[in-house]
Design a protein that fits this description.
alpha+beta, two-stranded parallel ribbon, 3 helices
Length: 80
């Protein structure tokens, strides 16, 4: 269809995986703000609020071992 989706929600800014991880909340926010400011969103680039993930949807791209480990890390407070 020639359309690209950019998934963004302020909720995603809560995720912080440490200073060395490529996903940095402020960086993600700046990308969204810049796309908005330059008027990039339109028929070919659409902004969508991401749906809440489920274990079933995560299993489409991740192993149970990986999902379980992430749950453990979150419970330990190592990431927010």
């Amino acid at each position: 269809s020639g359309r690209t989706a950019f998934f963004y929600s302020d909720t995603m800014l809560k995720y912080y995986f440490g200073p060395e991880h490529p996903f940095q909340p402020i960086r993600y926010r700046r990308i969204f703000d810049t796309l908005t400011e330059i008027g990039a969103f339109g028929p070919n680039l659409v902004h969508l609020d991401p749906p809440m993930g489920t274990r079933e949807s995560l299993r489409l791209v991740h192993t149970d071992e990986y999902i379980n480990r992430i749950e453990e890390v979150v419970k330990e407070g190592l990431v927010t």
